[in-house]
Amino acid sequence: MTARLADIAAQAGVSEATVSRVLNGKPGVAGATRQSVLAALDVLGYERPVRLRQRSAGLIGLITPELENPIFPALAQVIGQALTRQGYTPVLATQTPGGSTEDELTEMLVDRGVCGIIFVSGLHADTSADMQRYDQLRAQGVPFVLVDGFSPKVQAPFISPDDRAAMRLAVTHLVSLGHTRIGLALGPKRFVPVQRKIEGFVRTVQDQLALSPEEIESELVQHSLYTLEGGQAAASALLDRGCTAVVCASDMMALGAIRTARQRGFEVPDDISVVGFDDSPLIAFTDPPLTTVRKPVPSMGQAAVRTLLEEIGGTPAPHSEFVFMPELVVRGSTASAPRGNTRGSTQGSTRP
Prior knowledge:
Elements: H1 2-12, H2 16-23, H3 31-44, E1 59-64, H4 71-85, E2 89-94, H5 102-111, E3 116-120, H6 132-139, E4 144-147, E5 158-161, H7 163-176, E6 182-186, H8 192-209, H9 213-220, E7 221-223, H10 228-240, E8 245-248, H11 251-263, E9 273-278, E10 291-294, H12 297-312, E11 321-324, E12 327-329
Parallel strand pairs: 1-2, 1-3, 3-4, 4-5, 5-11, 6-7, 6-8, 8-9, 9-10
Antiparallel strand pairs: 10-12
Helix pairs in contact: 1-2, 1-3, 4-12, 7-8, 10-11
């Protein structure tokens, strides 16, 4: 019991005496402190005393894509911590290839009586998806917030990074280093964040390098998958077109681009510069450390929770999008453009 009290106290950031008072229903404990202790019980997997179980603020569902991309666990952690601080219990539901769909996970969470749901990079970001599923959810009285991807067809608050600004930051950085042949590797075009990144990329390259939008989209934009292998494939196509720098729409794709460059005998960043997107955990420790555009995960996660709790509390946010500014983080994967400023598929030297 002493060990259990110590664990709960450490998790809640209070004294063991305070934990004891809460568990025994004694007065003299602030409401917020009491909620923190109860949330700590939930997080650590301890069962609440029967008399305290009804005091839980309830369950909040969090639906994310696969967790192989480290940016999703990072966002889930921020959201989960913010929810537990408010006395709610987060329920993480993850989509996996061949596993449950977003609709199935949503139905499961609703059946379990969640107070609300946060969707991260869900079908709301897919312009080809049917948005009526969200109308049906709202008709059931379940508040929800959508992260990454905006749809004018869905009456809900949205939380997004400024994807256009992200591309402006990345391209401006590379142009300042002397690159004039800059490629963009990103996911399927039907997704809203992809479309916005293309808009920002085309506009910035057009303004700073005086290329036509048609030339930029046909020669410098390559669609693939948001995976390491997808980054390899996209980078291969862009290097074939003479690009000396590649901007990637995720850090995982950027790692794939670096792998492709090395397979061709190029040095990163001496021959090829690579920029990622997200600033995922551990990405600063890759070889070379990755220059990337940092997604404002803490502020986005906290805003998602704050907005959802306002919805639950009866003061819903208007149908609007809260947009957060990303930040360029310069590390070791970008450098001045190589002499001649073009690289083709046959220009790399062969290495063992």
